[in-house]
């Protein structure tokens, strides 16, 4: 099952349609970075209103409304990492709905297949694919401990000092990583690609992706890492057409994040596996 993407010539890199699309995407930093819900609501309303007054843009209105729907659902809950039962249920329900509702509305209300989840994508993984997976682990091992520990952002995640909390952190980090690809790549990016060239759509989905990660805890100089990561995930998805591959990349990266958080909160527990801290 794949999302329909128009032929490249019908998708401009820059057009008047960028105005409503950027307004909708700008709601993400309003919600998740400066945390002004009223500003996010105004930006979403303005983006949809501008799309409505542009002639012949009914498909743009529909697709932007799906992104707006997902953003509204996610913005309804606090995104600070918490590991108690209520918080994990709240995350699961809200993030699940943010993916499911746009899909349902697209499929059964708008009657199209704008959103899809192409698991296998473009065929067998090559040596290049496997090489990048190894590179992700190595880069994560080199960079992430330095980022989390020297910036102190590991404190944005709760202390995990018992087996139960460590297990909850493992599940939470992995689940959010999978959700990232379902929403930012298979929903936001796929919808934007119907109207803009891949590079333009990728930059806009990155605005949404990085804003979410900021509230989640990737602060300080975190965007220097999360912006290229989000852009690369979009490029990888374009090249592989495989949700399985981008999810694998993300989970490997998040496995290092998990290990760093455990290490930072429990110095010595994992021995000297990292160069920092």
What does this structure look like?
With 277 residues, the protein is mostly helical. Helix content is 69%, strand content 0%. It has helices at 18-32, 37-53, 58-75, 85-109, 127-151, 163-193, 198-216, 223-240, 243-265. Helix 6 packs antiparallel against helix 9 (243-265). The longest helix is centred in the middle third of the chain and has 31 residues, at 163-193. The radius of gyration is 19 Å and the shape is globular. The N and C termini lie far apart (45 Å).
Shape call: globular
Q: Please trace the helix and strand order, writing H or E for each element.
A: HHHHHHHHH
Beta-strand portion reads under 5%
Total number of helical segments?
9
Uncertain stretches: 5-9
Kindly report how far apart the N and C termini lie. Answer: 45 Å
Helix content: 55-70%
Q: Biggest sheet: strands, sense, closure? A: none
Structural class: mainly alpha
* Oligomer designation: single chain
Average pLDDT confidence is 92
Topology, number of strands: 0
Give Rg in angstroms.
Answer: 19 Å
Brief overview, please?
With 277 residues, the chain is an all-alpha fold. It is 69% helix and 0% strand.
């Amino acid at each position: 099952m794949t999302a329909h993407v128009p032929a490249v010539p019908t998708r401009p890199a820059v057009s008047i349609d960028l105005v409503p699309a950027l307004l909708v995407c700008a709601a993400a930093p309003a919600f998740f970075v400066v945390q002004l819900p009223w500003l996010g609501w105004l930006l979403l309303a303005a983006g949809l209103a501008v799309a409505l007054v542009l002639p012949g843009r009914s498909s743009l209105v529909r697709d932007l409304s799906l992104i707006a729907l997902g953003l509204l659902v996610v913005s309804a809950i606090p995104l600070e990492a918490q590991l108690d039962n209520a918080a994990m249920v709240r995350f699961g329900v809200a993030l699940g709905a943010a993916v499911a509702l746009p899909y349902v509305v697209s499929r059964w209300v708008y009657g199209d297949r704008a959103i899809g989840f192409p698991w296998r994508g473009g065929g067998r993984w090559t040596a290049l694919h496997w090489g990048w997976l190894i590179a992700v682990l190595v880069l994560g091992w080199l960079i992430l401990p330095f980022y989390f520990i020297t910036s102190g952002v590991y404190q944005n995640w709760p202390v995990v000092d018992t087996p139960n909390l460590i297990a909850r952190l493992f599940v939470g980090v992995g689940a959010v990583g999978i959700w990232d690809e379902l929403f930012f790549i298979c929903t936001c990016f796929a919808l934007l690609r119907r109207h803009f060239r891949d590079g333009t759509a990728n930059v806009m989905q990155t605005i949404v992706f990085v804003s979410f990660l900021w509230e989640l805890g990737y602060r300080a100089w975190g965007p220097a890492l999360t912006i290229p990561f989000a852009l690369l995930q979009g490029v990888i998805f374009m090249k592989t057409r495989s949700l399985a591959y981008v999810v694998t990349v993300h989970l490997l990266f998040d496995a290092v994040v998990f290990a760093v958080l455990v290490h930072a909160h429990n110095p010595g527990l994992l021995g000297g596996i990292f160069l920092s801290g």
